[in-house]
Amino acid sequence: MDDVLRNLPKLANEKHTENKKFFAKLKKKPPKDLDYVMQELHEEEFKRTDCLSCANCCKTTGPLFTTPDVERIAKHLRLKPQKFIDTYLRIDEENDYVLKSVPCAFLDAENYCMIYDVRPKACREFPHTDRKKFQQISNLTLKNVEICPAAFNIVEEMKRRVKLK
């Protein structure tokens, strides 16, 4: 897994222009069955992928925390929401709550999430490859293929399977 993660940014960079063109076409005229295909690709990939052997998303990026996320996690940690915010979060350029620092403070030494059952929505949905109207998140996906080997594999398989006119 270390080799894969070491090479992932380079591989993603090599595919960036190709991916960008593919997503531009996909956005203009998405196939009717795209959501179905993406769900299938996502499920196939995550049967083979062990996120615990990687956790690169938790080590290198921080999720966005919604108000319900903050309230749920704070309650779980027995903290007041403001105390949780003051301890773990900051406000980013887009005025969203994000982690003060990475790797995530809730990631343990074995790559387990210490707040897994109450983790942020963004973490639950990552890498967003099974999302409805997938073509609408191409910019996010272009970033995620640099971070997540599974997302990279899903996009590569998608380019093989989804025929664009």
TrEMBL record:
Family matches, as InterPro entries: Puta_zinc/iron-chelating_dom
Stored Pfam families: CxxCxxCC
Superkingdom of source: Bacteria
PANTHER family: PUTATIVE-RELATED, YKGJ FAMILY CYSTEINE CLUSTER PROTEIN
Protein name: YkgJ family cysteine cluster protein
Lineage, highest ranks first: Bacteria, Pseudomonadati, Bacteroidota, Flavobacteriia, Flavobacteriales
